[in-house]
Structure formats: C-alpha cells, structure tokens
Specification:
Chain A: Pfam families: BPD_transp_1. Chain A: Keywords: Cell membrane, Membrane, Transmembrane, Transmembrane helix, Transport. The complex is a heterodimer. Chain A has a single domain, classed as MetI-like fold (Orthogonal Bundle). Chain A is 68% helix and 0% strand. The two termini of chain A are 41 Å apart. Chain B is of the alpha/beta class. Chain B folds into 2 domains: 160 residues, D-Maltodextrin-Binding Protein, domain 2; 206 residues, Periplasmic binding protein-like II (D-Maltodextrin-Binding Protein, domain 2). Helix content of chain B is 47%, strand content 14%. Classes of the chains: A mainly alpha, B alpha/beta.
C-alpha cells in the first residue's frame, strides 16, 4: 500500500485572483453546515443505531453489537432486495437513457414548436411521486381502471398483481417521471457542442445519423455519465413510488432495499436491522457513484473541445 | 469564536426543529403530553364516521367539567401509528392514547409507557360491568387491564350480493364444501366469487383467522400466541393454509386481488356493483357500502352471514374474529392531574348520545343491552345481526396482526402475502412462521 499525496506543481494563482480566494471560503459555510446537520449527523446516527436493537418505543437504546448486522446479512430477504433494486436500476437506466437522449436532441434545436413541446414534456417532473403513483394505480386497476373502462383487452392485465408486470410498471412509472429531467440535462449538453463541428461534418457530407453518432454522442460523454450517475444513485432511493403502487408486492416482487428498510424499521419496529440496511444503501450508492466517475476516465476535468 | 459557533449550531437546531414540525403530517393541533395543569391531551383518528362522534364525546365532557379539560389532536390512520410511536419513543405522548389493544398495547406495557388500570376498574366496577366482557380481552396483558375499551364492536362477517345469487339461482354457502362448489359456477356466470383487497395483506389474514378457527378451534392460534414451539405445524393450521391455496387455485378471488388495497374501498365496490358475489370483511364495510353504494342497501340487495363451517372441523361455528372494541390507555408519564382528568373522561364515555352516534354509523356500541337502542335504527337488521354475532360468540378472537407484537405481525403479513401469491407452500409458511414464534 503506497498512498502518497500526488505531487502538484501548480503555482497558486495568487497574482490573478488578487486576494479573492482567501475570502471566499466563507461562501461554502452555509452548504457545509446544512450538509453536516442534515447529511453527516443523521448518517452517524444511523450507523450507531445499526449496532443497537431499538424498538422505537423504549427510552433506552440497548447496544447489541453486531446482532443487527448478523440478522440482516443472514436473511435471504437481503439478496432478494438487492436483486430487485439492481433490476429496477438497470431496467430504468436502459429505458430512460435512449429516450431522454433522443428527446434532448429533439428539443435542443431552436425551433418554437419544439420549445412548446419541451414545456409539455416537463410536466411529469413537476408532479409529486405519490400523486403520480396514486393516478397510475387507479388507471391500472384491473376492475375499475383504464382497461376495464375502455374495454381494451390488452390493457386488462393484472398490472400490479403479477410479479413481472408489477416490476415493469414500476420501471415505467419511474421513467415516465424522470425522463424529462434527464432530457433537460441532455438538452443543455447538446447546446454546448459548438455548431462549427456540425458545419464541418456537413461539408464532409455526413448525414444526420452519422453526425449524431460521430459528434453528438462522443461529445456528450460526460453528460451521459452525469445523467447515469443521477439515475443509478437515485434509483437506490425509490421508495414512495413503489410503496404507493405495490407496497413491495405482490409477495415481495418489488421489495427494493429502501422498501425493505422501511418495512423493517417502521412496520416491524426493528430499527437496528433497518439502520444496517440504510448503511448498506449508503455504501452501495457511494460505490456506484465512484465507479461511474471512474468510467469517465481519470482526467474527467479535461476539455472535450481540444482541437476545435 | 466559540460563542459564535454555538449560536450557529443552535440556530441550525431551531431550523431543524421547525423543519421537523413541517414534516409531521397533518395534526390539526400539536400538543405535548407533558403539558402543565389538569388539561389532558388526547390523540385519535380523524375522518368519518368516527371523528365527529369522538369529538362530540370530548365536547360534552369539557362542557360538564371546567376543572380538567381534554385537548384533542386528530390524525389519519397510518400517520397516527407512526406519530404515536415516535412520540412514545421521545417521551412526548398524549395523556390519553387511542389504540387497538393486543400486541401493540403489550409493547407499550413492556416499555412502561401506559398505566395499569386494574385497580381503578376494581374501584369503579360500574364502568366495567356495563361493557361487553369480551371487549376486555385485548385490553388485558398478563392478567392486568391496561386500557379502557370504548366505541364499537367490529366482527368480521361474510357479506354477499343477493341479486347475484338470485340471478344465477344459487344459494349462499354454509359449508366450505359448498364454497368450493360455488366457485366454478360463479366464475362460469362471469362473476368473481369473492372480492378481496389483497394488497393490504390483513384482508387475506381474515380468511386464515376463520379457517383456522373453524378447522381446529381457537386453540390453534392461541398456541402461537402463547409461544409454543412449532405451533404453526399443527395439522389444523396446515389444512387451513392448504384450503386457502385451493381456493386461490380455483380462482375463488377476484382477478387482480393482490393489487387491490382496502383503503381504496374497491373491494366493497366490487361487491355492490355485482362484479363479485361475496366478500369477507369487517362490519365497518356496511357503513362504507351504505355511503358509497347508492341504493344497494336500501334495495335490500346486501346479504350477510357468518363464515361457513368446515366439514370435520372442531371449531364452534359461533366463534368470530375482529375488533372487540377500541382502546384508551393512560400515558405513564402524564401528570397526576392529567391522569385524573383522563379517568373522569373514561367514566363519561359511551353515554346515550355517543351510543346513538355510533348506531347511526352502522356500529354496535360495546355496551350491554345496546340492542334495545338498535330497533329504532333504519339499519336495525344489520345492527341486530352484529349484536347477536358479537354477544353470542363463544370465542371472540382478536385480529392476529393486532394480537401479535409488531415484529411478529410484520413477518406474518409478509408470509401471508407470499402464501396468497403462491410463492410459498403451506409447509414453507409454517416453517417461516415457526422461526418467529415468541418474538
């Protein structure tokens, strides 16, 4: 193990910033205070709770060492919940990325009708997850829902009562809500690409499809990584939507980690094991975020516009 | 410098407290249990039909007593359960705790959160003797009474749609064999045999509660409750689990039952719209159907009966399950004056006005002789039926999830969901449940 701090030979840019850098650190304080108060402190609390067996009722919190961890790690529910979580993560990434990328390309163009459409596309993002879930639940009701109302045979599935279908519905509803957000990110990314690149490609005779794959996609590398990180890490915390739609069911078909944590903590009053799962969620999220950053290459801050 | 840091911190803490207050959902007022004076705080469930009646009882008490008043805060069902547990854990619970008795109450008792009322009931025998004896079951933990039973008795009964049966020239089932014969006939007629809000899980549980009781009597679940090892391996329990899976395999329940929630009242709607022939549900369903089902009850289309018997079963057919009442406990950390106010309030409960209020909502108050008041009600047939079922029951079983500790109840509901989804076999169910006996 040789972990040495990298030797950095950059001279401090004291001359150019003229004393500003010294005084601006206070600007970070509100964010740091908020982060410590609402991020770090609760996290430490959860970590400590995971070594106890608190039942939410008693005033004293008995310390039980690694008991909660042993319970959680030996429970077959954990690998299942992890599997469901990763399945939802992977499927929603596969579903959202192409659609939001193409929609981003579509609304990046400076045309008025596309701007109008763009506003409409964003509506799902403004709605609360609980409201969306309740609406979809009503629409998908096997007896009083859309299928039964319109009389369409193919809509009359047991959408939320069949294990596979329920998982697909969860992925669909999640994507329906978050595609606008990622479209917005891609739109911004695409508008950053210099028009001169496309002009050069046109002179070389590249058609639209070729331009998309040779210019837009490579230029969006970091945008894709950013958007994917948000999708993947965000999907770990899906709770309200799943809870309202399926409550983790049917059986345990959609019981992702966050739902499992809630059921153990707030339904079964097992705060110790629930906190252990929360810690696992944090670790998985950190590992994924770091992994995705690695994907972007070591030099993530390098310019994409070299040679332009 | 140090002082400034401290100020920043305390400002942050204040903001945090403010945010936390915003996050708590929907209390109409917020009070802490450790307030001064004789004013007792009382939290209960909001929403019709119960809220105005509970509020009315408090208003009448406050009018009659200027010394000790009751201050009310109301919550929605699920929000209440969470808020109350958090408040108990933080030492901020109300003086009067509304609840369901049983396992939940036991967890309060185990943590010394509620007062033992046994002596008080001994001194005030009149308060105790006018109530159904069965209603004291869930209030009694380790042979001591920790709660005042109140409100109404709510047994689980079998509702059916008379129109569906007449149209198809069928008769409602009296035995389990007849149930299984009816299922294919009703399916052939395009009607689901049974409506079920299966996503709520406790709805499925009601079926097992009755099957276990009809097949092997109350002893089967009592053994689980008493913590006997491998109690779920009882042959009666395995037979009950097998029968329910047979019914599911025969398409006994409405299509998509596992995605229907009880909160949406869609299960009742299936019954009164004629999409399902029967429904096993709590007696409170009557109030829901009467409010939402148009003229369904007025037209005499709603039928109701006890759960069918099971051939060869040893359980008494008069046995029933459900809620033997609702329960009020006194918070152990309330002041003596508050406790005194609460006890005076208990004495005032279920007066004639309150009884009348519950009867108007289609409920039977847990007061002996309440049947005399039922005759004047337009719902007298149903109310008399509920009174008979409740007062004649040899054994009035408590809902399993409320009888067990929250931890065991969650495992139970989880496994019931899997059983109804055919994910696990009866034996696997028994094995999973045997592991949490006594926890």
């Amino acid at each position: 193990m040789t972990i040495a701090p990298p030797v950095v030979h950059t001279a401090p840019p004291a001359a150019s910033s003229g004393g500003r850098s010294g005084s601006v650190t206070w600007m970070a304080w509100p964010a740091v205070v908020a982060f410590v108060a609402f991020g770090v402190v609760p996290l430490i609390g959860v970590l400590l709770l995971s070594f106890t067996s608190w039942n939410r009722l008693s005033q004293d919190i008995p310390f039980t060492g690694l008991d909660s961890w042993r319970t959680v790690l030996s429970d077959p529910q954990l690998p299942h919940a992890l599997w469901v979580t990763f399945l939802i993560m992977a499927l929603s990434w596969l579903f959202q990325t192409p659609i939001s990328l193409l929609l981003g390309v579509f609304i990046a163009a400076q045309k008025r009708y596309r701007s109008v459409l763009a506003v409409l596309f964003f509506i799902p993002l403004l709605l609360s997850q609980a409201a969306i879930s309740i609406t979809y639940k009503a629409l998908l009701d096997p007896n009083f829902g859309l299928g039964a109302g319109l009389g369409f045979e193919f809509l009359q599935q047991d959408w939320l009562g069949d294990s596979t279908l329920a998982l697909c519905v969860v992925v669909f509803v999640v994507s329906w809500q978050f595609i606008p957000f990622h479209t917005l990110i891609y739109q911004g990314g695409i508008r950053q690409i210099p028009a001169s690149m496309y002009e050069a490609a046109q002179i070389d005779g590249a058609n639209r499809v070729r331009q998309f794959f040779s210019i837009t996609l490579p230029q969006l590398k970091y945008t894709i990584i950013t958007s994917s990180t948000l999708m993947v890490v965000g999907s770990l915390t899906f709770f309200d939507l799943i809870w309202v739609l399926t409550a983790g069911g049917p059986g345990d078909a959609t019981r992702a980690l966050a739902v499992d944590m809630y059921q153990r903590g707030f339904k079964a009053d097992l705060m110790g094991p629930a906190s252990a799962i929360a810690v696992i969620l944090v670790l998985v999220g950190l590992a994924l975020a770091l992994g995705l950053r690695r994907l972007g290459g070591r030099d993530a801050s390098a310019s994409q516009l070299e040679g332009v | 410098m140090k002082r400034r840091n401290f100020l920043t911190l305390s400002a942050g803490a204040a903001a945090g407290a403010a945010l936390a207050a915003c996050g708590s959902s929907g209390p109409s007022e917020s009070t802490t249990g450790t307030g001064s004076g004789a004013e007792a705080s009382y939290w209960f469930l909001s929403g019709p039909p119960g809220e105005p009646i509970r509020q009315g009882a408090v208003d009448r008490f406050n009018k009659a007593n200027s010394g000790g008043q009751i201050k009310v805060t109301t919550f929605q069902n699920d929000a209440y359960k969470d808020k109350l547990k958090t408040a108990l854990g933080a030492g901020q619970a109300p003086s009067i705790i509304w609840g369901w008795g049983g396992g939940g109450l036991k967890s309060y008792v185990d943590n010394n959160q509620v007062d033992d009322l046994t002596d008080w009931f001994a001194q005030n025998a009149a308060v105790k003797d006018r109530l159904f004896p069965a209603s004291f079951g869930p209030a009694t933990i380790n042979d001591k009474i920790y709660a005042m039973p109140c409100e109404t008795v709510q047994p689980i009964v079998m509702f059916y749609n008379k129109e569906v049966f007449e149209k198809n020239k069928l008769t409602p089932p009296e035995t389990w064999g007849q149930v299984m014969e009816l299922v294919p006939k009703l399916n052939a007629a395009g009607v689901a045999p049974f409506s079920l809000g299966g996503q709520s899980r406790w709805t499925n549980m009601m079926w097992l509660e009755f099957l276990f009781d009809r097949i092997g009597g109350p002893e089967v679940f009592q053994a689980v409750f008493d913590g006997e090892a491998n109690a779920w391996n009882n042959p009666a329990s395995l037979k009950g689990l097998t029968e329910i899976q047979n019914l599911i395999k025969a398409n006994g329940f409405v299509k998509g039952f596992s995605s229907i929630t009880a909160d949406s009242n869609a299960d009742q709607a299936l019954l009164y719209r004629g999409k399902a022939a029967m429904m096993l549900h709590g007696s409170w369903s009557y109030g829901i159907i009467s409010a939402e089902g148009g003229s369904f009850i007025k037209d005499g289309k709603l039928g109701y009966m006890s759960f069918p018997t099971v051939e060869g079963g040893t359980g008494d057919p008069s046995n029933t399950v459900g809620n033997a009442g609702q329960f009020l406990s006194i918070y152990s950390k309330a002041s003596d004056a508050q406790k005194e106010t609460a006890k005076n309030f208990f004495k005032s409960l279920l007066d004639d006005t309150e009884q009348q209020g519950w009867i108007e909502t289609g409920g039977v108050p847990i007061v002996k002789g309440a049947d005399a008041k039922l005759a004047a009600s337009p719902d007298k047939d149903f109310l008399n039926f509920i009174y008979q079922v409740s007062s004649n029951a040899k054994y009035f079983g408590q809902s399993w999830d409320q009888a067990l500790s929250p931890t065991a109840a969650e495992t139970l509901l989880d496994n019931i969901a899997k059983l109804f989804q055919m994910q696990i076999s009866p034996q696997q169910f028994a094995d999973n449940m045997n592991q949490v006996i006594g926890k």
